[in-house]
User: What shape does this take?
Amino acid sequence: MGNNNMTTSKKRCVLALDQGTTSSRAILFDNTGQLLATQQESFTQHVRTMETEADGENVDQAIVEHDPEDLWKTQLGCASRCLSEAGVRADEVAAIGITNQRETTVLWDRATGKPVAPAIVWQSRVSAPICERLKEDGLEDEVRQRTGLLIDPYFSATKIMHLFETHSGLRERCEAGEVLFGTVDSFLIWRLTGGRVHATDVTNASRTLLFDIISGDWSDELLKIFNVPRAMLPKVRPSSGIFGEIDEGWLGAPIPIAGCAGDQQSSAFAHGCDNAGDAKTTYGTGAFLLESTGTTPVLNAEGLLATPACTRESDSGPQSYCLEGSVFVAGALVGWLRDGLGIIERSSDIEPLARSVPDSGGVVIVPALAGLGTPHWDPFARGLIVGLTRSTERSHIARAALNAIALSVAEVLGCLEASSGHRLPRLRVDGGACVNDLLMQTQADVLGVPIDRPAVLETTALGAGLLAGLATGFYESTASISNARGIEKTFHPQTDEKERHQQLDHWRDAVSRCRGWARSN
Assistant: This one.
């Protein structure tokens, strides 16, 4: 499949499709991993609350949805404009790599390709009551041992259960193979190939609660627990390998789709987190910290998830794994200050505003706008701001927001270090928010370790492009992009241990106040 016949004089680049939570992007990379062109387009977030019952109480849960057609149209549009911007013809593209928001759930009609319901986004808490029922049935230990995950609304299976419970006859249609399920990558692959390929990769499959990360396949036992028909599931393939060709009509040539990975594993692959102990954090809508554990999955780390790393079709060795910590709200907190509170006009305004004061003035924000992820896994937590006084200004809120992102990540890193028993020597970073120097310096200060920011910040997309390029021979090896993996700036800690621990103590106290808030109010 992957061979050097693809590498001819006319192949100039690889195209990465990066389908994220708030926007779609397309990026062209050359044979050294440098950007040739990039396009980005935002789409509508459909957010509302719904009253559900948990433990006999009525609880308001955040519902977050996307129109799958918006994901498709913006992604295809970005790809077309990206080629035009670079002056690249489709037949000059060696391969397409796809990376995506992971647990977001899409169901579509096999015959028409049309969605049968809105996409339920990974942030959505709509299936929290279902998760509570499954936990009460004592199923969490079995699920965790097979999947490396916890039973939480974050993941796909309980979203599917919610759709079955709210759409009459849907499960029967899925059982008959009339309706298909996929995470966003599968939906894009289906559309791009004209319905010829229903597939995903191991990293995306592993985020559904339906995939056994030890056996490397969909699990009959898990399908029974979540009452999900096998007929609706995509085929699971390696992250780097030929999935199929796109229809010529989309971009002008039948380009092979040769890479696919969930956004966080794609980022880790691009960073070269290959050895046990290598770690990275991506700052996007949320913040996600992955640390490689080599070929050993760690299934019982407190508050952390075990997840497979990217795989290559050419690999013959055992599967590699990572430990992951998930912060549900990071960059989204800045967006909330902009759109919800009107404290800033543009996201970029937060850094100069926060720099205008020496500290947060005692203000602490817990950004539990979509519940809490690692290590608490509390869908009933709600965000809060504490420490307000008459002297509190917008600038203190802005500073506290950046602190909140950094402290959320620090809490996750503490769990990783407790699990591994060793101190992380440094942290690699990427994502849109890491352009904020104050945030990165704050992160170094609260972690007490250096932060390495790469020369190419589009690391998630770079990983998808690298996976696709390796499968088609466009890249001979990961060494081909060594310059793109270079470090642009390192942020060294500037605070002492006493101040760092004081900040963390104040943070933990604030977090304890927001736990289970929706249950008690």
Summary: The first strand starts at residue 13 and ends at 19. The longest helix spans residues 394-420. The chain is about 35% helix and 25% strand.
